[in-house]
Design goal:
The chain is built from ten helices and 13 strands. It is α/β, with parallel strands linked by helices. The two termini are about 25 Å apart.
Length: about 325
Amino acid sequence: MRAETAVYAAGAVCWRIIDGRMHVLLIHRTVHGDVTIPKGKVDPGETLPQTAVREIQEETGLAIALGVPLGISRYMMPSGREKVVHYWAGEVSDHALQHSTFKPNAEVAALEWVTIKRARGYLTYAPDVEILENFAALVEQGVTSTFALLLVRHGKALARSGWKGDDSARPLTARGVAQAAALADTLAAWRPERIVSSPAIRCVTTVRPLSAATSIKVKLKPGISEDAWASGDADIRGVVGKRIRSGRSVVLCSHGPVLPEIIREISLATSTPLGSYVTDAAELEPGGFSVVHVSKTNSGSGVIAIETHAPKA
């Protein structure tokens, strides 16, 4: 099956605790007469995380932040094309419920919160059940409630050889500016509450569109700059430790040579073995990012999941 013939989609297992028990959200679709996990096709120009958040909003009326990735479903459509669906977990807050805009419509007839056990019997399609089982495994481990450390390598910058000024003032190229603009909507899918950046112009410019879109002020931290790293004055442990203790999702924008040290400190702070699964997350192209998921209730239990995203532009 050639990649260009596949249909890509994204969705989420939305969850909440009701009367002390885990419940997940299923949708009853009007036209198809089936019961599924909310999901939908990628719109032109979208990334998969954007699609997941948008589709949940459109199908359920709920605004969510993406949590741990739950896997990928692949199956053949009646048309003969392959459908590839990426899923995340998504905790539904009381605030999101109170502001739900859902009304029964031509696509979705009803929403239903059910236990995982009941969902196994309700779901129409086997691939959905497989994704549900991936979520159930997280529930068994007690790591459903997480926060995200979004590690961003700044966008494509002007080459050092072509810049005569101070290196920290080296700007993004036109491609780097496009990468920064593309990052904003994608990073917002995890609903970061803080944006922390190296003070280098190429880093600050990379996260500026996200700051403008979310009204979150960028906090400049010289301790994660390349200059501080090169001179031995970096304070990566201090910056990372504060973010782990906060338990809030955060964007950390830094430099290629510094990212491996940031990953190392995250591993140490969460008691995670420093294997290739972790270290590979620092191997980012300019404008790329990795999402490190950590338990809100027990950060010392280790990194729950890591996902890496290539630059869009």
